[in-house]
Design brief:
Strand content of chain A: 5-15%
Number of strands of chain A: 12
Oligomer: homodimer
Number of domains of chain A: 2
CATH topology of the largest domain in chain A: Rossmann fold
Distance between the termini of chain A: 63 Å
Largest interface: A-B, 128 and 128 residues
Number of helices of chain A: 16
Order of helices and strands of chain A: EHHEHEHEHHEHEHHHEHEEEHEHHEHH
Radius of gyration of chain A: 23 Å
CATH superfamily of the largest domain in chain A: Glucose-6-phosphate isomerase like protein, domain 1
CATH class of the largest domain in chain A: Alpha Beta
Chain lengths: ~450, ~450
């Protein structure tokens, strides 16, 4: 039987070890002597972020205070969970990746609703597969869009609504739909008001990629049976630590500072995030949007053309040791790596010794699976260090809601800091507008004929 | 109801459009005038690859002739499918990613065995989740390892074998295990012979990352109900086309040539592969290993330190338009993009018009989901081109077994060509050995104490 560990969760929920970012092997790591200078340069940056937060410009930093949203999510999830068995989540980008990540990491076995994600793609084959499985009487829809103008979720929504209305009738269908959208304006708000859908708010001052700990991500998570309140506990702890900790002990601040230093001084433009553990498989997909869309910018905040940006790569340990680590050890020195290590798995297994005379397996006997996974991460980090490859590790005690909430805010805050360091607006996405206009033209939308 | 298209599959199964790699917007695309010179330089490279193939040095190029393996796979899958309902596949890297990709792309709904992948990680939490679900009487194990010395699959195997033996008895358990391994030597061969497991061959001359169309990937695919013979039809078509086509019409050759040109002349070290469509979601994970592990090398073939390598990025359309495309349009000019476009989905859906007076959704009415997905790809490619970002598109008529087999060999051959161009050994992986030794030492394996 798996050995189940039920430790009380203690702070810190997340800890960043950057000693191998500065190990001075070769010349593609940061010299240790520069750390003090880096810390000195980071202090005004931290102050700037805190000032933006205190003056109400950084909505995501105030998430722990949005207690009304949290209560609304918990109450809605409780009701919807009593009424339905399956929740179809329709969203894309920040309205999709965060909730997927939470469900993959934290859904308790055998508890909560079944969650199906759609609308991440307008893929007809995927839609057909979903429709084969659904029992509409037991299915609710959570459509998520701040504006209701995004084509992928809205096309999926009108299709699914059509099937839902055919299955349960137009009068009854409204009870099956929960719209997460702007509280006042936009296409989805208009539809929800007309149809009488239940709604949850998308905070006006929080962008999509920073919204996983708002109702956008929390509602699907709560429906999945995840104690969402504990996510916010981890989120708050990291924020308060960011404000209080000494610079050199300040995880998100040092993470951003070290990435930026590699970027400007050693052209390390690729950021590999490599969690070890299946439950964090989707964490990298969530991080990719945050890091790429926030920092990949043509102009800096003064209008100068800079074409900045890190290219994030989502890797997974131990899997990618057999796929990407050859490149990371021997290829160009154009990247940094960050591991996420889970210190204690929830279950563990001791390996038996069925073939004591066969050395190729016998040496594993008595070791635990979790121990092997630790050894894999430690050995990979060591080999990379010997090859002069800068690598850091974020430790979490286990994959608890507190730790995941802490990891989320660690990287959210690091992104805000990195935006300050690169001097770009980390909260807009002007580079996707042209593509949208071309698409509207191709589809014959009014007003886009001449684009 | 979804409109189902059952077209006969016609060649070419795959077509590469590179016109937007050379569109001469800005100075980070290849000048069109250089194409003829590139083609001239590629001819001897093609000849070299063909010579290696004809002289028996490139095992993967001869896969279409391995008809005995194909028959063995089909026969074994038929028997195992009659005896069991679920197949647990234990493998990592090339023994895992290829089969996962095939099953995701091609598993027919409601047919074949249920396939569960494990051993991609030695993750105890994942193992616990798997064990909760399995009914051993109806479950077979396919353990895949050429040598049987790889710790991740072998640790998962001894654990699962232990549970299997407890559930069905040591005498009966052998019938549940199919080992895909070397025909003569290695730890897993020794175990299989001793236990009397049924086996399938890993061809001695084909490396893991080139093995998806050998029994390594074909057996799980066949168990999933995929007509694997048709995969090989596509594989063969691309190989024969590579040998016969004019240089400028030669997809894999031009793909590798254009990537290499961007790499050496414009420092474009990042290769983004972005299929549009949910069924190709795992294709990028398979491609990542092939491209990274083959070409990411410290030394060239003459022993000179070069630290070469492309960093592959697996993206997915339309999803990543809302995550990565901001960076691709506005960030550093350090990458090329390759889309995969599926010309006809198997099913499609016409959008209804529930709110004719709400322009934010009404403009979609009458369009089909598949049409929107096409428009998204076309619009994204256009916007990237306007921003001077080199991008190509690989077209497949639909996600058929022939097309997937063709896509696989397109990128396998392109990798061989790129290896020639970079002058590196594309078939070894020396950069992962140090990490393995460190791990053995941490686990106390004999002979690694002093490493």
């Amino acid at each position: 039987m798996p050995k189940t560990t039920k430790k009380a969760e203690v702070k810190p929920f997340v800890r960043f070890d950057y000693s191998r970012m500065t190990a001075e092997r070769g010349n593609m790591m940061m010299p240790k002597a520069d750390l003090i200078d880096l810390a000195r340069r980071l202090e005004p940056v931290r102050a700037a972020v805190i000032k933006q937060w205190r003056s109400g410009q950084l909505g995501f930093m105030a998430i722990p205070e949005r207690t009304a949203d949290l209560k609304a999510v918990e109450a809605m999830a409780k009701t919807v969970g009593r009424e339905f068995k399956t929740l179809v989540v329709i969203g894309i980008g920040g309205s999709d990746l965060g909730a997927r990540m939470l469900v993959k990491a934290l859904k308790p076995a055998g508890k909560g609703m079944e969650i199906r994600f759609i609308g991440a793609n307008t893929d007809p084959d995927e839609m057909a597969a979903l429709l084969r499985d659904l029992d509409w009487r037991k299915t609710a829809i959570n459509v998520i869009s701040k504006s209701g103008d995004t084509i992928e979720p809205m096309s999926a929504f009108v299709l699914l609504r059509d099937r839902l209305v055919k299955a349960v009738g137009v009068n009854r269908h409204a009870r099956h739909v929960i719209a997460t959208t702007d509280t006042e304006k936009g296409t989805l708000r208009k539809i929800a008001d007309r149809e009488g859908y239940r709604t949850l708010p998308v905070p006006a001052d929080i962008g999509g990629r920073f919204s996983v700990l708002t109702p956008v991500g929390l509602f699907p998570a709560a429906c999945a049976g995840i104690p969402v309140r504990r996510l916010v506990v981890g989120c708050r702890a990291v924020r308060d630590e960011f404000a209080a900790a000494k610079t050199m002990d300040n995880g998100p601040l040092m993470f951003a500072g070290l990435q930026h230093d590699g970027y400007v001084r050693r052209s390390q433009h690729i950021t590999v995030l490599m969690p070890y553990g299946e439950r964090l498989r989707e964490f990298g997909s969530w991080f990719r949007q945050l890091w790429a869309e926030s920092l990949g910018k043509r102009l800096d905040r003064h209008g100068k053309v800079v074409n900045h940006g890190f290219t994030p790569v989502a890797a997974l340990g131990a899997t990618d040791q057999h796929s990407q680590v050859q490149l990371y050890n021997e290829g160009p020195f154009d990247k940094t790596l960050t591991f996420i290590e889970v210190e204690s798995p929830d279950a563990d297994f001791r390996l038996p010794n069925p073939y004591p005379d066969i050395e190729g397996t016998a040496y594993m006997a008595g070791h635990r699976l979790g121990e092997i996974l630790h050894a894999e991460r430690a050995a990979t980090s060591l080999a990379l260090t010997e090859n002069g490859r800068p690598n850091g590790t974020v430790f979490v005690p286990r994959v608890s809601p507190e730790a995941v909430g802490a990891l989320v805010n660690f990287f959210q805050i690091a992104t805000a800091v990195a935006g300050e360091l690169l001097d770009v607006n980390a909260y807009d996405q002007p580079g996707v507008e042209a593509g949208k206009k071309h698409m509207y033209k191709l589809l014959g939308r009014k007003g886009f004929e001449k684009f």
